[in-house]
Design brief:
Elements (H helix, E strand, L loop, with lengths): L22 H8 L5 E4 L4 E3 L2 H5 L4 H7 L6 E4 L5 H8 L4 E5 L2 H9 L4 E3 L12 E6 L10 H11 E10 L6 E9 L18 E6 L1 H8 L5 E8 L2 E7 L2 H13 L17
Parallel strand pairs: 3-4, 3-6, 4-5, 6-7
Antiparallel strand pairs: 1-2, 1-8, 7-11, 8-9, 10-11
Helix pairs in contact: 1-5, 6-8
């Protein structure tokens, strides 16, 4: 039986665009932006499409070196991490809600499926490592629900490697994917997804505040290329407890461990 959790309320897997002509698909096809997440108040968060469409860089490799066993890249985008893992001979699967992202990942030689993390997935409960990088800790706008879902995907004792925002922030908002174009007179004339969808941005401290009550404990923290990362692990008893919480919607209370010293990339 699938351990899939329902997606957070208001979640919309089509928000990034599953067709070939949305702003996200266009950016991946062209290999560059501009591309933004636009909040409902008009504020724009730039998305680093050029880096996503390039090969894995030194910061990426600092995370990939820590991966254990088979790797699930949640929100794989254009597939640079899946391709890099495959080139290293490590079994990896990328999932993304965008057709364009999945197609590009496959062209790079990586394995990918068009799925939401909240859909039924292959190998649930057996993945050695899950990746949530490039802001993907924000998927669904509900960090607790995403962490619980990740628990169900990983094998007991599995590793979660998450990239946090380089700010002390805990933000849950509604956004649209937008290419940010303007006319000559400064009027907004961009292409955006049809409706706002929930998203979150978490700094490291906020991420740990959500993770610790669910039984995750940090085993490594580092920064590379200005990007902060955290590696977290759960013991078997905490994992079973979280699965029970997911099934019953009961509050989770588990013991936590002290934060480790920050290590070099």
């Amino acid at each position: 039986m699938s351990t899939t959790l329902p997606p957070p309320a208001g979640g919309n897997a089509a928000a990034w665009g599953t067709g070939p002509y949305g702003p996200y698909a266009n950016a991946l096809r062209n290999g560059h932006g501009p591309l933004f997440l636009r909040r409902t108040d008009g504020w724009l968060l730039p998305l680093d499409v050029e880096r996503w469409c390039a090969g894995a860089d030194a910061a990426d490799l600092s995370a990939l070196r820590r991966c254990e066993g088979a790797v699930l890249d949640i929100g794989c985008g254009p597939g640079r991490l899946v391709a890099a893992l495959a080139a290293r001979g490590q079994r990896a699967l990328g999932i993304d809600v965008s057709d364009a992202a999945v197609e590009r990942t496959r062209r790079l030689g990586g394995a990918a499926l068009r799925r939401s993390v909240f859909d039924p997935l292959p190998g649930e409960g057996s993945w050695g490592t899950a990746l949530l990088v490039d802001g993907n800790i924000g998927i669904g706008g509900d960090p607790r629900a995403l962490l619980l879902r990740t628990t169900a995907l990983l094998a007991p004792g599995g590793l979660l490697i998450a990239e946090s925002a380089p700010l002390d922030i805990d933000e849950r908002v509604r956004v649209q994917v937008d290419d940010g174009r303007v006319t000559a007179d400064g009027t907004a004339n961009g292409t955006a997804t049809a409706a706002p969808f929930p998203w979150a941005r978490l700094g490291t401290r906020a991420l740990l505040r959500y993770a610790r009550p669910l039984g995750w404990h940090p085993v490594d923290q580092w920064e590379a290329g200005g990007r902060p990362f955290v590696a977290l692990r759960r013991n078997l008893s905490a994992q079973l407890s979280a699965q029970l919480c997911a099934e019953t919607s009961a509050p989770c209370r588990t013991a936590t461990r002290p934060t480790p010293r920050t290590t070099r990339p």
